[in-house]
Structure prediction request, 1893 residues.
Amino acid sequence: MKALAAMTLDERVRLQFEVEQFLYREAELLDDREFERWLELLTDDVHYWMPVRRTTTAREADGAFTQPGEMAFFDDDRAMLETRVAKLRARNSWAEDPPSRTRHFVTNVQIKDVAEDEITVACAFRLSRTRLDSEEDSWVGRREDVLRLTPAGLRLARRHIFLEQTLLLAQNLSNLF
Amino acid sequence: MKALAAMTLDERVRLQFEVEQFLYREAELLDDREFERWLELLTDDVHYWMPVRRTTTAREADGAFTQPGEMAFFDDDRAMLETRVAKLRARNSWAEDPPSRTRHFVTNVQIKDVAEDEITVACAFRLSRTRLDSEEDSWVGRREDVLRLTPAGLRLARRHIFLEQTLLLAQNLSNLF
Amino acid sequence: MKALAAMTLDERVRLQFEVEQFLYREAELLDDREFERWLELLTDDVHYWMPVRRTTTAREADGAFTQPGEMAFFDDDRAMLETRVAKLRARNSWAEDPPSRTRHFVTNVQIKDVAEDEITVACAFRLSRTRLDSEEDSWVGRREDVLRLTPAGLRLARRHIFLEQTLLLAQNLSNLF
Amino acid sequence: MGAKDRRAPLDVAELVDFERGLVDRRIFTDPAIYQLELRNIFARVWNFVCHESQIPTPGRYFRNAIGNDSVIAVRDREGAVRVLLNTCPHRGNSVCRADEGVARSFFCSYHGWNFDLNGDLLGVPGYDDFYRGTLDKSQWGMASAAQVQSYNGFVFATLDSEAPPLEEFLGWVGRVGLDMLCARGEIEVVPGVQRNLIQCNWKLAVDNLFDWYHPKVSHASAVRLNVLPESTLYPNDQMVLLGDYGHAIGGPGLSSENQARLERQHDESAQTAGADGADGSRRHAHAWRLREDVRERMGPVGVRTRGHPNIFPNLWVASGGTQLCLRVPRGRGVTELQWYTFVEKDMTPAERREVIQHAIHFFGPAGLLEQDDGENWSHSTRGAAGTAAGTRPLNFAMGAGLDAVRADGDQASIDTVVNEHGQRWTYQAWADWLAAPDWPSLVANHTAPPTEVI
Amino acid sequence: MGAKDRRAPLDVAELVDFERGLVDRRIFTDPAIYQLELRNIFARVWNFVCHESQIPTPGRYFRNAIGNDSVIAVRDREGAVRVLLNTCPHRGNSVCRADEGVARSFFCSYHGWNFDLNGDLLGVPGYDDFYRGTLDKSQWGMASAAQVQSYNGFVFATLDSEAPPLEEFLGWVGRVGLDMLCARGEIEVVPGVQRNLIQCNWKLAVDNLFDWYHPKVSHASAVRLNVLPESTLYPNDQMVLLGDYGHAIGGPGLSSENQARLERQHDESAQTAGADGADGSRRHAHAWRLREDVRERMGPVGVRTRGHPNIFPNLWVASGGTQLCLRVPRGRGVTELQWYTFVEKDMTPAERREVIQHAIHFFGPAGLLEQDDGENWSHSTRGAAGTAAGTRPLNFAMGAGLDAVRADGDQASIDTVVNEHGQRWTYQAWADWLAAPDWPSLVANHTAPPTEVI
Amino acid sequence: MGAKDRRAPLDVAELVDFERGLVDRRIFTDPAIYQLELRNIFARVWNFVCHESQIPTPGRYFRNAIGNDSVIAVRDREGAVRVLLNTCPHRGNSVCRADEGVARSFFCSYHGWNFDLNGDLLGVPGYDDFYRGTLDKSQWGMASAAQVQSYNGFVFATLDSEAPPLEEFLGWVGRVGLDMLCARGEIEVVPGVQRNLIQCNWKLAVDNLFDWYHPKVSHASAVRLNVLPESTLYPNDQMVLLGDYGHAIGGPGLSSENQARLERQHDESAQTAGADGADGSRRHAHAWRLREDVRERMGPVGVRTRGHPNIFPNLWVASGGTQLCLRVPRGRGVTELQWYTFVEKDMTPAERREVIQHAIHFFGPAGLLEQDDGENWSHSTRGAAGTAAGTRPLNFAMGAGLDAVRADGDQASIDTVVNEHGQRWTYQAWADWLAAPDWPSLVANHTAPPTEVI
Ligand code: FES
Ligand code: FES
Ligand code: FES
Ligand SMILES: [Fe+3]
Ligand SMILES: [Fe+3]
Ligand SMILES: [Fe+3]
Prediction:
């Protein structure tokens, strides 16, 4: 692809449309619990990572998130994501039986970079989860995704998820972001 | 209209823009309590439906929502919606006096189908309601709308509202989604 | 710029894109705590205003918000906003040390008017704030912004923030909307 | 002086002044009162749990609550309805998390103890290897309600083995109340029980069902739309039935003369509903009331009432006899409303649709009527917590001391105008329940239906 | 051994050690203490409810709270200000849900009882038909505050009929405190009362108003911006006035010498504000204090104080005399802050704007100063709940035993440096209020303003 | 009859029936029990606060909780670890709001009192000018834990000066439990302590750690994926160690024969882990157990256990000895889980990565195993609050009365199958702690490790 700076306004509008539609569709597959079809949207070398956040003073704010190689909530390759999906599908996967009702709100989508076949996209997200008698959790934060243009269309090659919560308020993270 | 598959990328971008702007405008009319102008955006044969959701096991997840003809929270034709608006406007319509402050967040808009003069649109929504001393309710879910292209512009011909809550946490549903 | 009514659909699509990207970028600067760079996006004559809302009967609903010149939560010119940013940057600015984690959700963006070099934009917003051990506040409402097209690009010339809350549920308003 | 509340603990006997129609507001907010309600009322009374049509075949279940206990109503292999405490006897986990469905057995997600549909402990992983046979399975099944009985399809359960039989508990008034729903024909629940929360004490929701005083004001906007004929709101004739243990029916009745006229009209045209169009155009309207079997079972007085029954403590036969509304306490200040909508099995699709549309558009959280009720109750609850407001009794005095009771045998009824007898009766019974240490005491000491002016 | 708390109930007399300046932390968290505060303080004291300019004409009302009771301050048909309990005497519903507005009467949304602006029960639907005339309307109006009185436009109400007159309650210190706002001229509230919640015990918000120790640290970031001249934060001269029933004023004062100099300057130029630029460039600054009538009403000592008054229990005369801040308890650990901003009616638009901009930018939830306060209070509240932390008393010892009191007649004042006398005084009075079973006892037994070293 | 609960206050001695394995459900919901736990357990016991590697250098701190008190673990200037109550002695503000970091001193954001890393009060603004030297700084430093001690890098603190030394408190079982983590080599915490909330009583989270009965069911979906070899779930040999004060270890052990075989294998190849692949492919597996120093410190019985230790009350040595999980009560019905992951300092990057990936993917809130646990505990907690459910004891009877204890000196162990001894032991100890008025009494009266059949 052209570099972002080299694109015409119309090209950028079109790319924005395609990226947003991809992200919406991808979110919908998760919310519809079409996990296998969601897996199809990932590259083989996908990296899915959610570091641990800590409350720090302003002075030490750079150290809020753990770094790659340290502890994380998710630090998954494709095989691990397939395992997660297999677990979600398995009988007696109790955390999700009865199934959670999730809704991914993907907003403020910004294409930050286009390099070769990869598009770096930032968004603000809110994942809302409702379970049983309307017990509600929500997670808010910033996502940085890398989408790769493949012959089969856009694919998710990297997802970095930066939550606002330090102490997670929910009983688990049994859903995908 | 052209079928979705037959559209060029530019055509899809334009249609997306028009659909989104329609949905934003329609939401704004509700939030501004311009209910009569909102009614103008509905077709005469509009169907406005919110089924009842039940928590089920994963195995029986298909049965979560009630079916047409069963109980629902909303199952309204145009006349009923006009009645609702008339009620909202009547003096001493206590559920809405003092008026609720609502905000409709319409995101993840996807055009799922274009057939003849009808556009099927899915979105993730969050309706936030604030009353009195800042008592807050919110409803999250998926909406499936059918917009019809009429000589007067786009009109809402069908709205199916799928909430995440099974037990509604709010004292009533005195607002429109 | 052309008046809105005189624009072609494509021109409106492009303007929508540019306005949305501006708002997303501006929100991101706040969430990233890049306050000085955020200030660069303001015009010198910017007016930043959040009136006080009161619960009223339906009959007196027009009086819900205070008027210009009455009390407000924010009624700031550029100098005052610079002072706020300077305060945020000062050592021992305790309300924001440890820093709050904020996320601005900007949705339902509508261009309401284009006149000369100014674009009036309405949106639904939700500002979510997380502090310390995941104490969460959120503010929901409507924003009406005026963006001005300058040689350096779009700039924020006016922001009117209409919250839904009458009684604010949070301990302070130490963040920017 | 210590910081402890210097007021004496509340004395139940002084909280309700039946004669003057005054009720102490603290009964809506006091935590000890609430605990006492859970123990002395909900853990003792016959609680509605579901309708048999909701669980027609073995394995079909419906989850509900008895007070603050979660229960499962389930059809067992023999076709009997069981009501099980939804808590695993092993480590207390919920055995059932779904609202409804069909199960072959109940399998606990923690350690896999598996229970038959009647609660019997079927399977225990490691019974031989780990327990080495020492677990007495017969003692560790799911706890059942002490008694489960149906009245014409309505399933009730009590956690108290001393409770008298359901029909005795219901008495004439309770039976008449349920008959208003089930005497029409064979009925079934329409799929989709609506549920929502109101931030109010459960009793304020309950007393409202007798409240034929509020519609013209609370529901003024609906009245203005002519969606409700105004005649239904302030009917000329009101009739009150008061029964043992707190059951009551209040609301429109037919005077004997009108009843007689209705009967004559009916003789003329079995298809005509007669003068009382209160419940709209629904077929037959009240014609079913003229059936011989109905007259026999409801009695000459019962057949005349068109009011709102409350099966004590919290089951409203609503919406002109096509819905039940159960009010489940979820805390002192939170009540869950459940709406069950019934159709007769032999209705045409159009008739069925009419009933359902009526239910959706008038009742339930989005109903044109119902949406205006909740905030009144939540504000009444909130107000009761005020230090000064809490000292002022609520007023239920409308009609107090003014109306004669007609006693036909043990059937007490009052023909009168709009009134608050039903509410007073409910609170008086409530005080009886709270004061009684057990069922025998309640049987012996509860207030008997009045026979004189009340 | 039983599971009940083995500690004795809190003994109010031991919670506050005035002399050593120690306060038991449990007073911020104990539920029984909070209930006692609602009854013995808020349901008894003169509570600020609004300023008369907010409700200038008949029918104008402003909703507020007295402790945990909702009240309506309203101008009645005769022009008198009434304070009504916002709870319908019928079934307890809130009669008024708006924050402010204009009403011809108060119409209850539940059954339509309609109340005159003075609370009288005007209309009862069905009075003849349903109540059949038996309801004594004169007994079932809205409850009023026992007494309502204004001090120069500030409306106070008490729920206790035994309370002494407002001016007697205020005494010299309370009056001087309010005079700092109202002696300047004719004042009015600017539309828009800012309200927000802080997760703190109300007393921790109150004691902070005397706290001239915290600004340099809590508000360090604002200080660094030079938006606050540092001289205002650690002024050389501090002055404390202590009054009956807990009123106090603490903060900057002028020494007699500086006061004399100010007067000389004023004689030279009536337009010059003199040396005390503490409150910025606002017109006249403190020149109004030199007016003959002001000197007479505030007295020679009162006229010298520039500190922060607290009208016990929870009304702060703030912001250099242009704002009031009321701290309403919304639970043990939640406080609502209300900010009222005042302008003089004869101000120019520019002067008016200056006052309003100052109020917006320094105080209220987005104020450069105020935004840094809340978290300190909420964390102090939270910390007090700790099992170990709760056993350690808070320290309010600054200045304890070090400062002589100058008594001019019954006017006690202290000239000193930054101190915690105001806080200690407030907690001592708080203990008096909690210990007194009623007003006569409080009058007889409260701590009198000191006359010696404290 | 009054509205007060007529049931006697709970009698701690009757809540736990050790012999029959029955536990009263009210211990999970009763507010007075919870307060008693905070005082008699958490304010008295040795609480884990951090590992020394988290605060390696002076000024490094980690914030944590002891019961409901916030504390700071910090390395002081001399290199000693201090545990300070995170509440300013002045007005109670939190002195530290960050989770971790490095500080030169602790500066209170309210008035700027400044505390040395050991809690000493260093700086008091206005000490001379305002306090005029009267504040005894030596008395107003930050409160410290009464005692702080480390066991091989694990930092524990107690708020009770009467507590015996940490090693005595731990006893053989507690030390063996921690040795399973620290005897492998020099270890350190990987940055990033995972924390999340579960809506359960803390004891239900704790008792689950001994629960080798639930994995095959609770974690059935993970088992099906073969990510967990099934052999690890129902190992043939189980071993239980029971210690003083409630410490216990339960789970897989090696029989003496297998242990002997393992030793032989090890002799043959120091690189081979042997037959017990329970913890996957991690290097050396249990080879470290064969080291002479380890055998000496853990003893011949201790070295054989591969189970889950709980350091009473709430510290789980988890994940096969690479993680600690602390369960902090945040209310009767809310528990915070904290996961600490350890690596050996001399691991290769690949080994280190393997440990971390295992921790992320199996434990913590997103772990394939752990995500299924929370709802069982929250529903068990919720169910216990039911009026009827609350009267039925939970069943921890598996193995009760069936297993002989082998006593090697003071080292009591049981070789058996899957069982609930560890849970029973924990609840029995819990009752001892609650019943004891102080440490000497607990030392004298706690249940001694069994020596016969239990
Ligand atoms: S809790 Fe149900 S089987 Fe253990
Ligand atoms: S509650 Fe106000 S009129 Fe009945
Ligand atoms: S509260 Fe810490 S210095 Fe005052
Ligand atoms: Fe109603
Ligand atoms: Fe301050
Ligand atoms: Fe587990």
Remarks:
- The mean pLDDT of chain D is 91.
- Chain D has twelve helices and 23 strands.
- The pocket of FE2/S2 (inorganic) cluster (ligand 2) is lined by residues E 88, 90-91, 93, 108, 110-113 (CB under 6 Å).
- The longest strand of chain D covers residues 335-344.
